[in-house]
Amino acid sequence: MRFIARIVVEPKDGVLDPQGKASMKVVKRLGYEFVDDIRVGKHITVEIQATNKKMAEKIASELAYKIFTNPVLEKYEVSVFEMKKAEVIEK
Amino acid sequence: MRFIARIVVEPKDGVLDPQGKASMKVVKRLGYEFVDDIRVGKHITVEIQATNKKMAEKIASELAYKIFTNPVLEKYEVSVFEMKKAEVIEK
Amino acid sequence: MLDHKKVGISDREYGLIKQILKREPNDIELLLYSAMWSEHCGYKHSKRLLKKLPGGSSGENAGFVKIEDNFIVFKVESHNHPSAVEPFQGAATGIGGIIRDIIAMGARPIALADSLWFGPIEDSQSRHIFEGVVRGISSYGNSIGVPTVAGEVHFDESYKTNPLVNVLALGVCKELKSAKAKGVGNSFVLVGSKTGRDGIHGAAFASRELSDDTDSDRPSVQVGDPFSEKELIEATLEIIRLPQVIAVQDLGAAGLLSSTSEMVSKGNLGAVLYLDRVPLREKDMKPEEIILSESQERMMFLVEKGKENEVIEIAKKHLLDASIVGETTADKNYKLIWKDEVVANVPVESLGEAPDFYRKVEKADYVEKLKRLKIPKINKPVSEILKKLFSSPEIASKKWVYRQYDHTVQTNTVILPGEADSAIMWIKNSKKGIGLTIDGNGRYVYLDPFEGSKNVVFEAARNLVATGCKPLGITDCMNFGNPEKDDVFWQFEQSILGISEACNSLKIPVTGGNVSFYNESTSGRAIYPTPVIGMVGVIEDVSKALTMSFKNTADYVYLVGRTSIRERNIGGSLYLKLLENFVGGSIDTVDTEYELKLQNFILKMIDSGVLNSAHDVSDGGLLTSICECCISGNKGIDLFFTENIEELFGEVQSRFVITVKPEFTEIFEAMAKKENIEYLHLGFVRSDFRLFLNDKEIIDFGSIKSLYDSTLNRWMEEEF
Amino acid sequence: MNSIRACVIVFPGTNCDRDTHFALSKIMDIPTDFVWHDFDEVLDYDIVVLPGGFSYGDYIRTGVFARFSPVMKSVEKYVLEERGLIIGICNGFQILTEAGLLPGALTRNTSTRFICDTVEINVENFQTPFTRSVTKKNLKLPIAHSDGNYRISEKELEKLKAQNRIVFRYVENPNGSVEDIAGVCSENFRILGMMPHPERAACSVLRNTDGVEIFKSMVDYLRSEKIARS
Ligand SMILES: Nc1ncnc2c1ncn2[C@@H]1O[C@H](COP(=O)(O)OP(=O)(O)O)[C@@H](O)[C@H]1O
Ligand SMILES: [Mg+2]
Description:
The complex is a heterotetramer, with two copies of chain A, one copy of chain C and one copy of chain D.
Chain A: E1 2-11, H1 18-29, E2 35-49, H2 53-68, E3 74-82, H3 85-90
Antiparallel strand pairs in A: 1-2, 1-3
Chain C: H1 11-21, H2 27-36, H3 39-42, H4 47-50, E1 63-67, E2 70-78, H5 80-85, H6 87-104, E3 108-118, H7 124-144, E4 148-155, E5 164-173, E6 187-192, H8 201-211, H9 226-239, E7 245-250, H10 255-266, E8 270-274, H11 287-292, E9 298-303, H12 309-317, E10 321-329, E11 333-338, E12 341-347, H13 348-351, H14 366-372, H15 382-390, H16 399-402, E13 413-415, E14 423-426, E15 433-439, H17 442-447, H18 449-467, E16 470-479, H19 486-506, E17 510-516, E18 530-539, E19 556-561, H20 574-580, H21 592-607, E20 611-616, H22 621-633, E21 636-639, H23 645-649, E22 655-660, H24 665-674, E23 679-686, E24 691-693, E25 696-699, H25 701-717
Parallel strand pairs in C: 3-4, 8-11, 16-17, 21-24
Antiparallel strand pairs in C: 1-2, 2-5, 3-5, 6-9, 6-10, 7-9, 8-10, 11-12, 13-14, 14-15, 15-18, 16-18, 19-22, 19-23, 20-22, 21-23, 24-25
Chain D: E1 6-10, H1 17-27, E2 32-36, E3 47-50, H2 71-80, E4 85-89, H3 91-98, E5 105-107, E6 115-123, E7 138-145, E8 149-151, H4 154-162, E9 166-170, E10 181-185, E11 191-194, H5 212-229
Parallel strand pairs in D: 1-2, 1-3, 3-4, 4-11
Antiparallel strand pairs in D: 5-8, 6-7, 6-9, 9-10, 10-11
Bound molecules: adenosine-5'-diphosphate (ADP) and magnesium ion (MG).
């Protein structure tokens, strides 16, 4: 079976997010007064072949932790979906 | 009311994604054979004050379109949630 | 009540604090002493010895030398421990920190150099650190537009879990700014990024205890923001031109606390700070967190009262925060106010008077033991040894590294990385150039801390001389193990004495530096004692700057200086380490008088245009140096020389490989004789890329070049 | 007589502004001003340079924030009114594509690394205001970027080719750019974007003056245009 894993990596609370801070400065200058906070993270999409969802989740979490996240500074969230037939064929 | 908008920006289909490619290399090197594809995008979280969800969505989409996405290379998705009371107070 | 031992204050120190205050310190006060009396800020183990260095440090943020009316400000700093925890951010913030020391002097940063030491490249964790550190330096340095023009990279077991990341910054200005506060009632204006809970080491831990805060572990690694740093550079250089700006100081270790307390100490004044006026990035920060925060990209200005607005306007223009956070006082106390309450009040001088932990220690016994080890004889063909050396990341080209560093921005770089033994930066609107090199050798210093350290200084000087630059001054970064251990402390003392002696004989000052102790592997083994020397020199006419590449076919190749080795003294040579894993025996030592004569001679020859190339002979010995000249110039050589392995690869001091145009050889030889400089005619430059030794082609030279070019790439880019 | 005037636009974070200013004013002898990014009046210059560097730290995407600076409105007017020539170098090129003044986009190098080196580029069109006085077939110029990988849709690429707007191509592609493209210009040939840095190769002390050929072309073109107009 084929799965899509979405991994969202964000700066941990309290860790400086220079891109978010700079975005805020520009967004305010462009007149978006009601924007209070911007945080910038990574969004990684991974296609995985696995026998079941559990397995795919395990692989995705491993990748998230080992490769995509710097555990000192970042946290991550993983969500896994089975790919629809159509999507698979499309490839 | 306060809203959280999540903007996901990803490389368009068929567009070269050097970071995704580089990640694939690392993943394969680590022995993950059943990973077929990796795309690296951005995940931006924006806190918005607005009178209703429609309004918040409008602002988030504008930001996504105008600033966070380069239409030659990228596509985006926006989702907006109302912030829970608890989250608001915490701030 | 906080337990003083938990914040690194010994019973003895606690007693001292009580004596100073004539009462018990409160928790915040205790934390102030804990930070300021830490090894990092208080130099407890090193301050007495550092005073022995010639030229003494200026007591300012960085030292300087002068080239005509230009102040050349430079300093090296270590970021070893943060880089071990988080290679990318550790190295990036290292660049940020040293740059702020330069701008605090009023100088525009024009160059960076880096000295990097990692575990073996075969080890994947070491590669991970290497990769992260290089990316960190590249991402930060490139973004702020300061070229990284010189450096060195080493790999050795000794640095496996404790990499060394030393970065040097150099700036130029016509007028210096001071950190010394003057006048009572003047305002401290804090400019830059907002303050968050970054890097509050002991304090974060302690305050959590204090308040029973069960928050998740706060990361102590700081994140660099190069964009804010770039704006901080521009804002600072603009702000210091205002006449109402009295003093300026960067915020480094112990943040607001060390910057403001040092400023007023220097000026014999006191200070009061209103911590609730500091712009914060996070909610609910405690006063002790604010005063100790090591958030990056911040500067402190002391400004005449009532004239702060212009400063604040400049900061705003550069998208930076700015606010008045305190003022100078006459009473020489350091007072902190939080929500209208005095939360700390201590004599400011006492903060800078950490106790002196100097002690007399005996010579370490490992030294004699190693000295007695017999230097192994190697019975391998020259070609095989060459292959081994050139496939080692120690010798191989570092292009993989410096290609990631912007080394041409600012359009001053006359000699680029890889072209010669040191970089040369043009001083615009003049003919002059600044030479810059950074150098260390852990093996030499380990085997003989005194002579080894001397060698490192002289080698740095040779690096400059080979390009035509006369040495002007050094900055040193002392990377050592735990100074509480006798062997380490002895190494440190000997090393300081060796550096002093070398600088005295070169007649150049140590303008400043940095000490990094507690560099140990996880098993508690100290790293090789590794003093890193950054040296700055001058070339009067940059158009005469010389590179190491062989240039013209049929040019004469000479070895100048020590023309033969002393076989007993080739201990510490790289080939022994790489082929036999041998580190022992005696190292060669510098005969000062001869060395100086030799350096002057080379400088004179370069200035008179007799030489076509010059390269100092160091790691890997004579044949390695020759090969490097060939590769760099894409030329070959007809070499006539002994085939003795020790002669070809053994390392001795005081020698250069140079080339001379055929029409100048007579002059050259006559001059050398006149000055009593030894030389040996080694052979001729060949037009094709081939290596002949005594008329035999000993190796497919192309394969050596490809090893040289590809080794780092292979390790870092290919799949393993 | 030299009536040509230039300006170098400075965005927060820009770091090649002073280099470019030096090359234009000291080497080309063109009176040159710095213009801060919040300038919103008429750009009364013959040459407008968007220099290299890291505007806004290259955060989010190279060039994106700079594109929203007030000065870009003035730049747009400058373009509409065909007042003079615009050259965007490196980050300047990225800003011009973000602003839609040049087609395509620049993304991460295929190596995902920053590359600082000297490369050779072939001049593909010698007729442009930026290349008309170039005397060599190819130029050696420094590059220094991590996002120099030029991308463009098929359709737009065909158009570029048909209109002869690919000005420079790398001899050896360092970053993955489509069709080795190193520099392109606008339909009216008055805007050039290029990744290599001519201002870093403008001075004999630095042992490379190939960049001067580009600046000289611009000056020559503007002079001849002035003569034609008067
Ligand atoms: N190894 C050394 N050699 C010479 N001077 C040193 C050395 N280590 C520190 N210093 C000097 O001591 C002073 C304090 O250094 P440091 O705490 O690193 O400064 P900063 O607070 O700017 O980081 C500086 O003047 C510095 O040059
Ligand atoms: Mg300082």
